[in-house]
Amino acid sequence: MTTEPKGNEVRYLTPPPIEVKKKKYCRFRKYNIKYVDYKNPDFLKHFINEQGKLLPVRITGNSSKYQRKVAQAVKRARHLALLPFVGDLLK
Fold first, then answer.
1. Which tens digits make up the pLDDT trace of 59-68?
2. Which of 29, 39, 47, 75 has the most CB atoms at less than 10 Å from its CB?
């Protein structure tokens, strides 16, 4: 028997990288943010996608309490024309 690798066998010099997903966290609770300011559109842009839709909790990691506050702040900012309703080239 020989110990040489066969043609269909794959050998790695280093082990293949395994992606470890980070645990999602509520950034409002972590940084102790009590109030979501609707007058700060740069901060609110982190919670909407390129089309102008709100990102869901499973992507942002917000708690439901702060997700509701973010949704209300985005709606108020849209009403005052600080954020667009439809974001064609938002980001």
1. 999 999 999 9
2. 47
Number of domains in the chain: 1
Which residue shows structure tokens 């869901």? 56
CATH of the domain at 68: 4.10.640.10
The CA distances from residue 9 to 4, 12, 18, in Å, are 10, 10, 20
CA nearest neighbour of 62 among 87, 27, 14: 27
pLDDT in tens, 66-83: 999 999 999 999 999 999
Q: Give 28-49 pLDDT, tens digit per residue.
A: 999 999 999 999 999 999 999 9
Q: 39 φ, ψ to 5°?
A: -85, 5
What's the DSSP call for residue 21?
Answer: P
Instruction: Give the Cα separation of 16 and 14 in Å (integer).
Output: 6
